[in-house]
Each structure stands twice: as structure tokens, then as C-alpha cells.
Amino acid sequence: MEGEIRRPDVSEIVGQIRRKERPRDSFVRQSLSSIDALDSQIRAWVCVAPRPNIIEAASAVDTTAPLAGVPIGVKDVLHVAGMPTAFGARLSARRAEEFDAACVGMLRGAGAVPIGKTVTAEFAYKHPGPTRNPHDLRRTPGGSSSGSAAAVAAGMVPVAIGTQTGGSIIRPAAFCGVTGFKPSFGAVPRDGMKVSCESLDVIGWYGTSVTDIGAIADVLLSDERVLQAPTRRPRVAVICGTSLHALDADAREVLVVAERALTDHGATCTQTAFPREFTMLAEAHRTIMEYEFARSLAPVVSVAHSGLSEELLTCVRRGLAISRSQYRGMKDLQSSLRDAWNMHFGDADLILTPSVPGEAPLGLATTGSAAFNVAWSVLGWPCLHIPFGRSSHGLPLGIQLVGKWNGDAELLGWGGWIESLGPDQGAAINSESRIAPA
């Protein structure tokens, strides 16, 4: 969208409602107005709940709740009471769900107001939905959590829930220029989610800043405040490349700028090559993902074959051809490399690495490469994308911070500090103006 997008953050919303400076339904109404104005172009939403129902729910929130009056979007693989779940697929009409997914219920209990379901790639795999990148409508927003990232990027909601199997949270965050967080595997309950890959699927979320991410983490990850300022400067392992995909010049420059900023502010940065097992992790991801995805989707394929994409059907066929012994071998590798990689990175507090190979690609037929994400998804380690500069075309770029398994709070603490070191997000790295969509 042309010009800078106004994005009220979570603390602003909660503070104004708590102080009674704005009505409890004020920001929900603002979100609905933004959706009305923008979504015909961006197409981030599958459905939005009836306006009277949402406003009534917002008007009833407890003003002392930690997320009082915060409107949220929910990826359409998670149940929201009163809304259907279609999984991004062309299926027959589905009834509204009776219950929330566990994470949605936790957020609702904290005062947040789910206002609708956001677009997902078909069953959170590769076949993209209709969503477009708010920074350039000709470009992919990434996937599979495309609608959630685009809705936050366009200012329609301050927070939206997504999921990741390979790179489905971090990649859209990078392409759309928002903050995205994938917690440690198993950190957020998945009840009420269509789990397609039991060993990989993780629920995460998008926000306008690390502070927003922390506000949601306070509800979904802990009974205490998660986001704490670090008491020392971090030790950072810097990984620039991977054999799976080249890193373009602008993305490489962003990583150099980030490392320099960290070093200038007292962090200890050490250049680290991807361990030789990296390609093994990528193969483990493919095998585990396809094996589990095929068996999860086989019942759907048996009754709805004609409504599914050839891309999905091909993946199911490949997965069903993988033997249980092959699958178990890769599961064993997943377990052993978790321990080995902990040793490889030694006393590093976090890893600094690219989120994606470069700016969002032109075209809407694919969702981009997950080459810089799959290793961390196999390991189950938490990942945080932070916007950090722009490409020569004026499109968002950023960095990925990776923490150790169950080190989510520490990662967010370092992330908040690193975010404060970032360049002006309104300026392109090479000073060209941002592309406005036609």
C-alpha cells in the first residue's frame, strides 16, 4: 500500500482501553473499517464474523485483562467458535465451529477479540491462496500463513495467529515486513488445530513489534511476563548462507548491517558455517513432513479428491510411498541432531541468520523458498523474524534470530534489544523508493 501504514500496537490499544480513553470496542471497529477499505485488494481474510457479534464481544471485555479489546486474526486451520474452518481448500460448505482452538480460547480469555479467519495455503501446504503482498500486490506474501502476515502488515489487525511446518510463519513475516515468532516445538497447545505434521507443526503469531509478540507470549507461553530486557550483551553465532539456496545481495547486506550494529553495541559475534549435517536436516524435514502429511490428509483425499490441488495430491502420493523404516530413521536423526547442534553452537545465546533468500518474489503462484527455515523447524528451536531495512526496490527485508529449544523468553528478550538497533524501516538500503502496487 502506498505510504506508511498506521499500526496501533497492543500496548497502545490496551492502555487506552484500560484508562477508558477509548470505548472497549473502538479498535475492533477500526479493524473492521480497515478490512472494508483494504481487503478487496489484499484478500487476507477468508471470513469475518458478523459485525454485531464482534462489537458485542468487544464491548463486554474486561478492561483490566492483559489483551483487553485487541482484535486478532486467526489462520484458517485453527477453530474459532462461530466461524467455519475451511483449511484453504475448495471443500463443501462447512458448519461453524462450536469451540475455540485452545490457543484462541486462551487469547479470548485474556480479552482479545478474534474477528475473523485469515487465508492459508491449502491445508497449510504449498498451493497458495488469493492473498497479495500489501507492499506490492504483484508479489507473494509468502505462505502458508499468508493472510495473517498480510493482515498485520496492512494494519487491519495488530496481531494474527499463524502456524509453521517448514517456514510458514517466518517467510511471510519477512516478505510482508512484520515481526513474526515461531515458538519452540510443543510450547503452545495445538488442540483445535488441523495438525498435518505431528512432529513439526507449531502455532506462532505476528505483531507490529517484538513488544507485541511478547504480549501474546505472556498469555500463550507463561503465567509470568515473558519479555524481559537482557542484563548483558549476547553472544551471537552468525550464519550467512546455505547450500540449499543462494542469498541475494540485498539480503546479505542486511545481515552485514545487523552484525555490525550488534558488534558496535557490545555483542560478541562469531561467523559460523552451517554444520555439514544441514543438508541432512533438510532431507529429514522432507521425509518427516511428507510421511506425516500424507497420512493426515489421506482421509480428506479419499472423500474430496476432486476439490484438492494436484500439488497437494502429489505430496500425498510421495508421502504414502515413504516406508515406516525410512520415516523412523529420519525421526532418529531429528532427535540426535537436536543434541549435536546444541553442542555445535556452544555458548552462543542466539543465532543470527537470514529469514529468506531476498525480497518477496514477483508472482502469486508460489509462496517462496523455505531454505533458511526448515532446519530450525526440524530441530524445533524458536525463531523470531525482525524487519531490518529494505531492498533496492524498497521492499521489506529482515533478519532471523534463532534460540535454543525452550529458550523462547531469552530469545524474545534479545530480540527486543536487537530490534531497537535496526535501521529506519522507511528507508531503502540503496535509497530507491518503495514500489507501489498497480
Helix and strand pattern? HHEHEHEHEHEEHEHEHHHEHEEH
Low-confidence segments, ≥5 residues, pLDDT <50? 425-438
The CATH topology of the largest domain is given as Amidase signature (AS) enzymes
Mean pLDDT: 92
CATH top level assignment of the largest domain: Alpha Beta
Short note summarizing the structure:
By secondary structure, the protein is α/β, with parallel strands linked by helices. It folds into two domains: 12-272 and 346-419, Amidase signature (AS) domain (Amidase signature (AS) enzymes); 278-336, no CATH class. The chain is built from 13 helices and eleven strands.
Explain what you see:
- With 438 residues, the protein is α/β, with parallel strands linked by helices.
- Helices cover 37% and strands 13% of the residues.
- Helix 9 packs antiparallel against helix 11 (324-344).
- The longest helix has 27 residues, at 278-304.
- It starts with 9 loop residues before the first helix and ends in a 19-residue tail after the last helix.
List keywords for this structure.
11-stranded mixed sheet, 438 residues, Amidase, 13 helices, alpha/beta, Amidase signature (AS) enzymes, disordered C terminus, globular, AS_sf, Asp-tRNA(Asn)/Glu-tRNA(Gln) amidotransferase A subunit family amidase, Amidase_dom, 37% helix, 2 domains
